[in-house]
Amino acid sequence: MIGRLNHVAIAVPDLEAAAAQYRTTLGADVGPAQDEPDHGVRVVFITLPNTKIELLYPLNDASPIMGFLAKNPSGGIHHMCYEVDDILAARDRLLADGARVLGDSTPKIGAHGKPVLFLHPKDFNGCLIELEQV
Amino acid sequence: MIGRLNHVAIAVPDLEAAAAQYRTTLGADVGPAQDEPDHGVRVVFITLPNTKIELLYPLNDASPIMGFLAKNPSGGIHHMCYEVDDILAARDRLLADGARVLGDSTPKIGAHGKPVLFLHPKDFNGCLIELEQV
Asked: What distance lies between CA B18 and its chain's CA centroid?
């Protein structure tokens, strides 16, 4: 069911510093910062040869990233995203197997403009997993 | 400098259950469990089309994973591994930029039989980063 690892998202306490570090110290292909007001985040995409890293920073105090950074002041890996071909079929299989989908189990439009769902970390080894239909 | 994301490593509280979940519920290509006594872990590799997931479980009480699971009983993302062409050149560039390399900065032979280094999480947005020479 799951396909490629679409991205790993890292919440960071200083977006400019983190982007500069990936660009300069780690020598990666780092894009410009962009606001995602619908998701309450400011993001920087890092393109690796086989996948992407997303640096996440709260856009405002209501951002879903605020609580994570309060608990993890240095930042940390926030979630990982697996691609699926059919997000409704994926959801139904997960629910049938007893896994919890966050929210009301209805896919939302994610930061890449594609349907996404998030799975409950406690059901997946403490990892917040995003599924994105590609 | 950094190339592909070689793998994401997830520490899990129940290796068999986690492997079964990735195989059945998530429908991924999950390999057999294998002991890595030199690293104190029992691992399962999951092959995705573009990268790998490593499930990590402590092989004994001295395992470096024990403390992580004590702090994160549900499990969690333990580290991520970026590939580099030349690990000594990578190390020297990191040290010159003020980043801390764990241990004595001498590459060790990692779980894949290749030279690896780990970078200090506090210098990298709270993420434990492994560099592997490929």
From this structure: 16
* Span A112-127, pLDDT tens digits: 889 999 999 999 999 9
pLDDT per position as a tens digit, B51-78: 999 999 999 999 989 999 999 999 999 9
Domains in chain A, CATH or no CATH each:
5-133 (3.10.180.10)
Distance of residue B91 Cα from the nearest chain A Cα, in angstroms: 10
B97 beta partners: none
- CA distances A129 to B30, B85, B133, Å, are 17, 30, 28
B45 contacts chain A (CB < 8 A): no
Query: Which residue do the tokens 């990936």 mark?
Result: A22
- Which tokens belong to B9? 């490593």
Question: What token pair was written down for B93?
Answer: 């560039």
